[in-house]
Amino acid sequence: DVLADPNARQYVGAIGYHPYPYESPYASMEKILAGPGMGRPDAAAVADRRALRDLGRQYNIPVWMTEVSHGGLDPRSMDALRARAIEIHDELAYADASAFFAMHEMWDSKSNTEHFGAARSLLKEEDTIVLIEIGTSSVLITGTGYAIGHYARWVQRGALRVESVSDDSLVMVSAFTDKKRGKASFVIINNADTVKTVRVHMSGLAFTGPLEGEQSEGDVRWKALGAVPTTEATGDEFAVTVPAKSVTSLGGTF
After folding, report:
1. Lower CB count within 10 Å: N or C terminus of the chain?
2. For the whole prediction, is pTM greater than 0.85?
């Protein structure tokens, strides 16, 4: 065991893992939507991630989810975006992962043809962040790319994830604080078929003004929200309306 050997352990920078094999609970987007997306995470997959979390904590080494692919859904779809946003939530919550990688950062049609053959659609690379169609000079951010952006555009290096609890099994919330910048941020996933009003209560933190945010739903990606005021004079509570099957990111200064 590498980590059990103190001489070898000094060369380990991170514990990396993948959610394979293909069609596993967190590789398949359909299984993500039908499992944790319906409030039913796979018990074995959760146990595996908690074991990784505990291993990282034992040796004070970060845990990274370093690759995922073969999601199986159209990368242009909202379902693909929401599925990977759910996975990111769960990798953070169960494995305490401090990094999430997709398949490739970019992939283009020429490379796709040379690698797989002309018959394979570029859209089959659904977990690459950006797909480039050279013939039409078009660039597509995939659902996976947009899902990562819902976190990465609001959570900067050095921020810490804080525990968050939802009283609705179809609403997921990830929360982060950044003491250096005096900012806090949230990613809210509504997996329900109906609009929800989500009220967020904070402990030991108060905002100094309204929050800002963005939402993805249907065919809309990263749509800017208007100012989201706190609902209490103390600044420790706010409410936001989240559309059905949507992903919302918010942030503010404390």
Report:
1. N
2. yes
